[in-house]
Each structure stands twice: as C-alpha cells, then as structure tokens.
C-alpha cells in the first residue's frame, strides 16, 4: 500500500494534487477535472497513469470498433455508452465531474456506478463491455484476487482491457503474472519521463490476433 503525505506542504511532485482542478486536452476537447484532496484524498485527484490511457485509446478502439466510416473519428468514439465506477464515497464527486465536462445530450451515455471489486458483481451484466480502462488500480495486494474476479466477470473474449500503471514494487509485477495466467497481456506504451506503462489484456482464443 502506498502512503502519501496529507498536507499542503507536501513535496513538489505532489503539489499538483492540491490544486482545485486539472486541465487536459483530449480528442479536440478541453476537460477540466475538479480535484479535492482534502475531502477524499487519493480518490479525488488525477494520477499520471490516468493521463497515459488517452495515448492509446483511439488507436486501440479503432482496431476493434466497427463503425460506418473506414476510420473511426473522435465523435463516433465519444458517443459510446460508458460506465464510470468508483467506491461509494467518491460517487457524488465523480458525478459532478461528468456533469461539468459532458454536454447535457451526452450525459445519459455516461453512467456513474458503484463498484467494489469482487462484490455485488450481479449489478453488472457479465461479458457485456467492449473496453475496460483502469488507471493505477494494482497497487494494493489484498485486492488483486477480487480485481481479477471482477475483470473475468465483466469480460468476454472480445473485451479489450487497458491498464496504465507504474511498476513500483514486486507485488505489482506479481499482479501482472496473475493477469497473464487468465488473459493475453502485452505492454503497448511506456512513458519514461513519468515511468508509466500501459498494458493491453484480452481473453482471446486466437493469441496470434492479439
């Protein structure tokens, strides 16, 4: 488990978490994510691994999504139905960020839903998700078995998982080995400046197509 200083005089690398918002430019859109470190701690700030997901999302989606045009464009991909999950304590804050960044006509496509790994999985249709995106979610070893159970419940053989993370400790590598026991896994991006990696995982019968 990572222990993070919880005060305004934290080291320089953590100062960004104490800002009231974090701004990103993605798919011709400006996204401003509200942050509230004092109220919710690590659940209400944007981590570097979250940013790394966007580097690969469009190229990987284009490989797997069938749309009317030869090449999916930003608008088509952004019109997907998305389920955004977190623990119950963070849901209200998460919902406020969705409402602040999506126009009213698109908000019904983004559902905010509580998910605690390994619990109440019947609230989610098994194998019905095309893509699963996870950022910085493999740091707590006690949750690894529950996380794998959750991924297996949500995935079909056509589901693509993207996990972005830092490999900080041996336990992180251990999780990747556990994941490889159940999915085809490969690294698709590495940012040496932030030491963040993006892994693609898929339960695939034909690994040569992976």
How many helix segments? 6
CATH homologous superfamily assignment: Vaccinia Virus protein VP39
Using only C-alpha atoms, the radius of gyration works out to 17 Å
Overall average residue pLDDT: 75
Low-pLDDT stretches are 1-12, 64-76, 206-210
Highest-level CATH class: Alpha Beta
| CATH fold assignment | Rossmann fold
Biggest sheet features: 4 strands, mixed
Q: Assess the beta-strand content as a share of residues.
A: 15-25%
- Order of helix and strand elements from N to C terminus: EEHHHEHEEHEHEE
Q: Quickly count the domains.
A: 1
CATH architecture: 3-Layer(aba) Sandwich
Residues in helices, as a percent range: 25-40%
Q: Which descriptors would you attach to this protein?
A:
single chain; Rossmann fold; Protein N-lysine methyltransferase METTL21A; 4-stranded mixed beta sheet; SAM-dependent_MTases_sf; disordered C terminus; alpha/beta; disordered N terminus; methyltransferase; 8 strands; 210 residues; S-adenosyl-L-methionine; methyltransferase activity
Question: How do you describe this structure in short?
Answer:
The chain is α/β, with parallel strands linked by helices and 210 residues long.
Description:
- By secondary structure, the protein is of the alpha/beta class.
- The chain has a single domain, classed as 3-Layer(aba) Sandwich (Rossmann fold), CATH 3.40.50.
- It is 28% helix and 23% strand.
- It contains 6 helices and 8 strands, in the order ββαααβαββαβαββ.
- The strands form 3 sheets. It has a 4-stranded mixed β-sheet, with helices on both faces. Strands 1-2 form a two-stranded antiparallel ribbon. The chain has a two-stranded parallel ribbon with strand order 3-4.
- α4 links the parallel β3 and β4.
- The chain starts with 20 loop residues before the first strand and ends in an 8-residue tail after the last strand.
- The N terminus and C terminus are likely disordered.
- One of its GO terms (cellular component) is protein-containing complex.
- It comes from Chelonia mydas.
- It is found in: Cytoplasm.
- Pfam families: Methyltransf_16 (PF10294).
- It catalyses: L-lysyl-[protein] + 3 S-adenosyl-L-methionine = N(6),N(6),N(6)-trimethyl-L-lysyl-[protein] + 3 S-adenosyl-L-homocysteine + 3 H(+).
